[in-house]
Amino acid sequence: MTSRLLLTRRLVQLLIGLFLYGIAIALMVRAGIGLSPWDVLAQGLSLKTGIPFGFVTNLVGLVVLAFWIPLRQRPGLGTVLNVLLVGPSAQLGLDLIPQQTILWVQVLFFAAGLALLAVATGLYIGPRLGPGPRDGLMTGLHARTGRPIWMVRTAIEVTVLIIGWVLGGNVGVGTLAFALLVGPLCSITLPFFAIRLPQDAATTEAALESELEGTAEQSAGLEEEQDAVRYDVRDGILLESDRAAHARVTRSDSPFVRGPQPDRAAASRPTPASRPSRLIAAHWLDDRLTRRPRHP
Asked: Is it the case that residue 252 has pLDDT exceeding 60?
């Protein structure tokens, strides 16, 4: 696939994902049994100000994006389009979908909205054109504060949820269902819709890619990169590929290796001054636990 065709595919998938994301939000709003924390905030602000829900969603996205400035993060194309397009598509869905009052229909609408939101998330994150403004805020605060991803995300979403609830947003069983199910559902859709990009960083499109993706961390688990150290945003776990791990432990400033390893010691008998370090590299221990061949 040529670079132009690949970029076209990424843009089309991004736009479809953002449109469906807004429709998914509208389905959950019309279900009336609870919303995600950020939608609770948008609904509360809409009720207090009289501004349509979709436009409030845009305004909240712009405010969150403004917080990227002190965090020194640059938005990607997908980030900007997220701020601009999710609100209008959500408002379109609200204009077309009636409010539900029968319980089984409400549950059905919410389940459909949650499933569609997971698909839409995979679609708009898969092209790797920049995370949403809320995701970038989370990873930016993680990078600046050093706190774990799960802690930063929990603090942000609990704060947003409380403010939205005080303003009159709909907090209910759907809010709890969203918190419990959105992660597992997105763990299925993210790799399914991920678009694999060329790994050669020396291509002529490298500068363009930098502009399109921005500087914020993208959600992880999209593809098995060979060199990158990446974060799993859903679980707050630091993941590292084998090649990156091996490159790290060979550096002179590595905190894991401060001397010869037992399986790399010289054939000659070690002197007291050159005894093997007791700090064993993680991959060295891994090799023995899994009985893999020794690394060169």
From this structure: no
**Contact between 58 and 22 (Cβ < 8 Å):** no
Radius of gyration for the chain, computed over Cα atoms and rounded to the nearest angstrom: 23
CA distance linking residue 60 with residue 123, whole number of Å: 22
Distance CA 256, CA 81 (A): 42
Q: Which residue, 244, 205, 214, is CA-closest to 83?
A: 214
Give the Å distances, CA to CA, from 138 to 15, 122, 144: 23, 18, 10
CB atoms closer than 10 angstroms to residue 83: 22
- What are the tens digits of pLDDT across the range 71-94? 878 888 889 999 999 999 999 999
- pTM (two decimals): 0.70
* Residue matched to tokens 């001397």: 259
Tokens matching residue 4: 């132009």
Q: Which of 3, 13, 53 is nearest to 168 (CA)?
A: 53
